[in-house]
């Protein structure tokens, strides 16, 4: 019986059949000439482009509807925005270089599906795995494991645009109708800097495939890997084509797609509003931040169905009738909106409330189940077959509620013979397998090794006149195929002969000898051959021990060196070399073969009472620094997960001998590989030997260093100013002051020295000058990074254009920020400040303008924010997670959020028991009896019940008067227009929340000045009441001496 969802979606499948049959010219293109260029130039509405096998550079942008783009043979065509990287030479430990003529758009590590992070200096590169830096005709890289790039497969993004972009002409506001994309592979389309939001750069980045306002469109059998984002249908305002409707992505794959400029996308995405649309039968892995997502606006009768995501799924949209996540398997899930049905969530489910809202009668949430051995419950979980075994305790739940009688696990030849029937799936367990296996006149049988290994057999397998037979993960003495059609051999070992078999598909296998004769439509790729004869079909992207066929232009010479369990000790030579970025030859999802290597720990700076100890690892590690005045090292400091650590110690005994050592723990990620593994555990542990050094008997006199855009980092910083703030951060010691001259500084500043209680390190903008730390249009991730340092002061600084945060502070203490201005307008999800585990953090006379969540504070005892301005937050202005800790918020000016976030509270404080809030001013678009001002979860030590379906900003999201009543508190805070120069009043105001809901979209886009340069004076309150109360910035703090 058809489900309601199947019946509703059936209506638009007929439309999609029509889309594939529209009349028009058919342009047949091939690689190596200008036929693709000529086809693009001649393209008209209703036309098709048929791609012959091979690689094509660049993309196609069209305003036409009724366009079909398809591969003549699905899976044999790749459109690239990148090129293969040249050889690199070692420059210094962990850094490799090559000559390159221009700034890359991206650098990709195909073998691990990793897109490298772009960093701002060679110094930062030396501390960051999986990163690149470009300067003066040289490209510098630091691989994901600090190994030689020659042991990876690198490519360089060079195409400065989208891949396939479907968007109607500016001003037409028309959707794209009846577009079909089928059988293509898309890779290497990315951008090194933020693309500001406009109708052609949706979500700040380049896409390999983006269809605006998709109506009756279909994307099928298409793969996207290592792009800025994956593939998307994009709805939204009319300028974006309007609602996505009657459109599907089917049998698609996405791997390793990522852009730091987009946190709402992923591998496969639909941006709403959307109706009658679906993503189904998709497979995704290694995408960031997730594999598949529904995002924004209303989704009606939309499905995410029968998908497997090793990298998570999310639905963050407004729920309409009929939308559902159905029969999916995912590593993690954030179902903000749509209900789940018959899903299997292997790990994290976002929020306890999501668990409460989930129907456990048909879904499986492993995180909340008793310890589960998946192989005892499902047919072949290592290879993503989650059909239940007959005795599974999950019967009645999950994607396949009932066991299928034709799925079996067999341990010997007799059991195998008994289960051989048409339509069967048979998994071979370890056992005795010998003799000859004959399949004759059979249909629809799949025989596979179970688990991550390859099932060793002594079979000679004969397949005669069969149809739709699949062999996977088997080692056979001989595989002989004669006649029949649609035989698939995948990830197998052995000799092979095939004759007169139509549609033979031979992939990811190791075949010392192979003969393929008279096999029409044979498809042979990603295999390793000792010797091969083939007279029909297509073949490319294979490895040969000798004599690469001339027509296989992407095949190469390489021979595997066998290791345990049919693995390859030289597996790295084959990784990333298939047409879709997967390994050539057999592979499995397994751990990376990376050992933990550490440069350090070593002492890099010290005074009489402070010391800094530094280490760089080739894997992200967490752990402890143990130190003391004896070899027992009785004191300890913990540090968070990262590859680079600089731990500051203060309050030490002058002239003493200090011992230290580190205890490190990390874990390796997974990849698709057949590399022999030296360690079967993901965990990596290192315990260093104790070292010692002697502190100076007394401090040198404090110094005042200078930094200037006209400086030189080779100078002394006193007589000759340094060029970078980073150099000052490396050299300054406790008690020193760094005076920074006006100008723009494009860099990420890592603090590498700690201050002392009576001798802080101060970084101060020069009086009367504008010191601008610039993220270069979100190219730089964080502006200033403080980790495990103490007693630091930052004063008179401007921040603009960073990707994630202007400042990131972790595991620090006694940090003071004064007269800092963060301008995050037009930079998407930038936050002014993130701070974690940092006691006595103070913000004084600071300004935050725009941004996503404004300022995020977690576990920071005695956090204080005073006389500051939080102007025009994104989602909210301030998020504080200080459970049971004192938090002081006084004398500040808070304004309303981004126009579209009118329902959101201005402040979120997880635990209001420790909150001391007083004498603040709230400047809102709505009256105080309509606008929620504060959200929280805990009151009087108890978790509060949820008021709304979304608890991201608190279970309780309250009007200010209701908050005071609930807490029994009194306040001196007020609601008023502060009358600041930057914006005298909101350009759009409403009397009720209902009025806001009805009108905000038509008022969108005209919320505040976006281009003007701002200074502190723009945010000084002119309202006499605020001046009298000393709310907001204090003019006297900004007066020149």
The total domain count is: 5
Structural class: mainly beta
Shape, principal axes of CA atoms: globular
Approximately how much helix is present in the residues?
under 10%
- CATH fold-level assignment of the largest domain: Pectate Lyase C-like
Description:
This protein has 1041 residues and is mostly beta strands. It folds into 5 domains: 4-80 and 164-338; 82-157, no CATH class; 407-586, no CATH class; 598-694, Immunoglobulin-like (Sandwich), CATH 2.60.40.10; 704-924 and 971-985 and 1013-1029, Pectate Lyase C-like (3 Solenoid). It is 7% helix and 40% strand. A hairpin with a 2-residue loop joins strand 92 and strand 93. The longest helix has 16 residues, at 4-19. The N and C termini lie far apart (82 Å). Mean pLDDT is 93; it is low at 1-22.
What's a quick, concise take on this entry?
The chain has 1041 residues and is mainly β.
Write the layout of secondary structure elements.
Elements: H1 4-19, E1 26-29, H2 35-42, E2 48-51, E3 54-57, E4 60-62, E5 68-71, E6 77-80, E7 82-84, E8 89-92, E9 95-99, E10 106-109, E11 114-115, E12 117-118, H3 122-126, E13 131-135, E14 138-142, E15 154-157, E16 164-166, E17 176-177, E18 180-182, E19 184-187, E20 209-212, E21 214-215, E22 218-220, E23 223-225, E24 231-234, E25 244-245, E26 248-250, E27 253-255, E28 268-271, E29 274-275, E30 278-280, E31 283-285, E32 292-300, E33 303-305, E34 308-309, E35 313-319, E36 324-326, E37 329-330, E38 333-335, E39 340-341, E40 344-345, H4 352-357, E41 364-365, E42 378-380, E43 385-388, E44 407-410, H5 413-419, E45 425-428, E46 436-440, E47 443-449, E48 455-456, E49 460-464, E50 467-472, E51 474-482, E52 485-490, E53 493-499, E54 505-507, E55 510-517, E56 523-525, E57 528-534, E58 538-540, E59 543-544, E60 556-557, E61 588-591, E62 598-606, E63 611-628, E64 635-649, E65 657-667, E66 670-673, E67 683-687, E68 691-694, E69 704-707, H6 725-731, E70 737-740, E71 743-745, E72 749-750, E73 761-765, E74 771-774, ...
Parallel strand pairs: 1-2, 2-5, 3-6, 4-16, 5-18, 6-19, 12-13, 16-20, 17-21, 18-22, 19-23, 20-24, 22-26, 23-27, 24-28, 25-29, 26-30, 27-31, 28-32, 29-32, 30-33, 31-34, 32-35, 33-36, 34-37, 35-38, 36-39, 37-40, 40-41, 44-45, 45-47, 46-49, 47-50, 48-51, 49-51, 50-52, 51-53, 52-54, 53-55, 54-56, ...
Antiparallel strand pairs: 7-15, 8-9, 9-14, 10-11, 10-15, 13-14, 42-43, 61-66, 62-63, 63-64, 63-65, 65-67, 65-68, 91-94, 92-93
């Amino acid at each position: 019986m058809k489900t309601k969802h199947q019946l509703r979606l059936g209506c638009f499948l007929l439309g999609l059949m029509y889309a594939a049959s529209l009349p028009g010219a058919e342009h047949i293109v091939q690689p190596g000439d200008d036929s693709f260029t000529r086809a693009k130039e001649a393209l008209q509405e209703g036309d098709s482009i048929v791609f012959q096998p091979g690689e094509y550079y660049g993309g196609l942008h069209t305003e036409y509807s009724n366009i079909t783009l398809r591969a003549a043979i699905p899976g044999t065509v790749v459109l690239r925005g990148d090129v293969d990287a040249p050889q690199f030479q070692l420059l210094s430990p962990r850094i490799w270089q090559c000559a390159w003529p221009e700034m890359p758009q991206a650098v990709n590590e195909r073998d691990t599906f990793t897109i490298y992070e772009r960093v701002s200096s060679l110094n930062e590169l030396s501390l960051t795995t999986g990163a690149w830096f470009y300067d003066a005709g040289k490209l510098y890289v630091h691989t994901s494991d600090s190994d030689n790039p020659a042991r990876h497969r690198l490519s360089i993004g060079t195409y400065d645009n989208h891949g396939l972009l479907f968007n109607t002409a500016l001003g037409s506001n028309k959707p794209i109708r009846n577009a079909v994309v089928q059988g293509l592979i898309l890779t290497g389309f990315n951008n090194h800097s933020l693309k500001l939001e406009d109708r052609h750069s949706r979500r700040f980045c380049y896409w390999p495939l983006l269809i605006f306002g998709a109506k009756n469109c279909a994307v099928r059998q298409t793969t996207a890997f290592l792009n800025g984002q994956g593939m998307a249908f994009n709805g939204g305002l009319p300028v974006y084509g309007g609602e996505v409707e009657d459109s599907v992505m089917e049998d698609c794959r996405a791997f390793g797609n990522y852009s730091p400029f987009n946190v709402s996308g992923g591998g496969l995405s639909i941006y709403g509003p959307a109706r009658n649309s679906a993503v189904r039968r998709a497979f995704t892995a290694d995408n960031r931040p997730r594999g598949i997502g529904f995002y924004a606006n209303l989704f009606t009768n939309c499905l995410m169905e029968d998908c497997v995501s090793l990298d998570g799924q999310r639905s963050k949209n407004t729920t309409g009738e009929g939308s559902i996540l159905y029969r999916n398997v995912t590593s993690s899930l954030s179902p903000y909106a749509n209900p789940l049905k018959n899903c299997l969530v292997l790990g994290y489910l976002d929020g306890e409330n999501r668990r409460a809202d989930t129907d456990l009668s048909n879904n499986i949430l492993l995180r909340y189940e008793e310890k589960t051995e998946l192989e005892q419950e499902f047919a072949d979980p290592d290879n993503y077959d989650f059909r239940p075994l007959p005795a599974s305790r999950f019967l009645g739940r999950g994607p396949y509620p009932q066991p299928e009688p034709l799925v079996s696990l067999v341990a010997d030849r007799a059991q195998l013979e008994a289960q051989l029937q048409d339509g069967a799936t048979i998994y071979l367990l370890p056992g005795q397998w010998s003799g000859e296996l004959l399949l004759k006149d059979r249909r629809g049988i799949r025989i596979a090794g179970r688990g991550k290994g390859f099932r060793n057999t002594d079979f000679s397998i004969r397949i005669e006149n069969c149809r739709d037979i699949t062999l996977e993960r088997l080692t056979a003495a001989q595989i002989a195929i004669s006649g029949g059609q649609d035989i698939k051999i995948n990830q197998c070992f052995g000799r092979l002969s095939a004759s007169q078999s139509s549609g033979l598909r031979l992939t990811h296998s190791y075949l010392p000898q192979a003969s393929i004769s008279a096999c029409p439509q044979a498809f042979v790729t990603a295999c390793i051959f000792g010797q091969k004869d083939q007279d029909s079909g297509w073949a490319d992207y294979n490895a040969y021990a000798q004599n690469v066929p001339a027509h296989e232009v992407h095949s190469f010479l390489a021979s595997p060196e066998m290791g345990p369990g049919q693995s390859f000790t030289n597996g790295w030579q084959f990784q990333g070399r298939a047409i879709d970025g997967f390994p050539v030859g057999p592979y499995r999802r397994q751990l990376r073969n990376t050992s933990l290597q550490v440069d350090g720990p070593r002492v890099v700076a010290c005074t009489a009472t402070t010391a800094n100890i530094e280490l760089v690892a080739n894997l992200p590690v967490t752990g402890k620094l143990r130190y003391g005045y004896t070899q027992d090292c009785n004191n300890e400091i913990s540090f968070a997960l990262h590859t680079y650590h600089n731990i500051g110690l203060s309050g030490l005994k002058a002239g003493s001998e200090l011992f230290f050592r580190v205890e490190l723990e990390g874990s390796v990620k997974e990849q698709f590989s057949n590399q022999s593994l030296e360690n079967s555990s993901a965990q990596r542990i290192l315990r260093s030997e104790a070292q010692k050094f002697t502190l100076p008997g007394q401090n040198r006199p404090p110094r005042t260093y200078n930094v200037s855009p006209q400086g030189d980092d080779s100078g002394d910083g006193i007589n000759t100013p340094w060029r970078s703030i980073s150099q000052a951060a490396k050299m300054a010691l406790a008690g020193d002051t760094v005076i920074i001259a006006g100008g723009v500084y494009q860099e990420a500043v890592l603090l590498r020295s700690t201050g002392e209680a009576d001798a802080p390190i101060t970084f101060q903008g020069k009086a009367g000058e504008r010191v601008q730390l610039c993220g270069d249009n979100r190219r730089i991730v964080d502006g200033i990074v403080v980790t495990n340092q103490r007693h630091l002061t930052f004063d008179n600084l401007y921040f603009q254009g960073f990707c994630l945060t202007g400042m990131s502070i972790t595991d620090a203490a006694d940090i003071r920020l004064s007269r800092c201005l963060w301008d995050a307008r037009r930079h998407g999800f930038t936050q002014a400040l993130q701070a974690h585990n940092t006691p006595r953090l103070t913000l004084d006379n600071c300004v935050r303008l725009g941004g996503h969540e404004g300022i995020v504070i977690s576990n920071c005892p005695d956090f204080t924010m005073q006389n500051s301005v939080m102007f025009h937050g994104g989602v909210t202005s301030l998020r504080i997670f200080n459970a049971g800790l004192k938090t002081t918020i006084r004398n500040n000016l808070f304004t309303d959020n981004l126009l579209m976030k009118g329902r959101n509270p201005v402040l979120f404080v997880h635990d209001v028991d420790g909150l001391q809030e007083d004498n603040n001013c709230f400047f809102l678009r709505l009256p105080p009896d309509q606008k929620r001002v504060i959200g929280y979860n805990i009151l009087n030590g108890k978790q509060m019940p949820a008021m709304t379906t979304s608890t991201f900003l608190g279970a309780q999201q309250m009007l200010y008067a209701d908050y005071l009543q609930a807490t029994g508190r009194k306040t001196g805070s007020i609601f008023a227009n502060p009358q600041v120069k930057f914006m005298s009043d909101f350009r759009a105001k409403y009397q009720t929340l209902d009025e806001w809901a009805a009108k905000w979209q038509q008022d969108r886009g005209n919320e505040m000045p976006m281009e003007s340069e701002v200074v502190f004076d723009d945010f000084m309150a002119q309202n006499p009441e605020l001046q009298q109360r000393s709310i907001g910035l204090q003019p006297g703090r900004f007066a020149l001496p």
